[in-house]
Structure prediction request, 193 residues.
Amino acid sequence: MLIPTIAAAVILLAVAAGAAWYFLSGGTTSGNVAGQPRAITLQPNEVIVFSGASSDMKTAPGNTVAQQSTGENGTVVIRSTASNPSAGGTTGGAYVTLPADRLKDLAGRRVRVTAWARAAEQKPSSRFALAVAGQNFGTGWLVFTPTGTFQPYLLDFVVPKNVADGANIGIWSDIDGRDGGLELRLLTVRPVS
Prediction:
């Protein structure tokens, strides 16, 4: 009687492990292939503001953006030699602009920026920072430590009730200014209150 009980327990454990792998890998059987991010499920009110195309990102002097991969899971590698970039205006890093009409829809609300990123494979950054900068408001730089796999990094801010202009989401890819790389897959925004 002990052997069938052990066999049943082993089968149950294998099924549970398989189910856990399936869900943790984003519902695929291939897992996190070549470092690509797991399937990203957006919230109903979440909006993509950057989806991995270098042409959609601008840079301040001392920063570069290079296309790493293209297609559905396109990514860019951002590098910075800036030692003390501004967190205001267009920021002193790489940046994406949030249009005024989008911000006006979020006026008076707390908004979450989510950056899906990882340390670049070649000459990786050990620390990076995010900032949101608008006219008469901003977050300053919030520092993160990237891992070797794509992870979500969160930055919350409050949109002023009287917002009239757009804002910029800035990315300082290497806060040490050593040209370390950050690979970015996706930037999203959504109201959280």
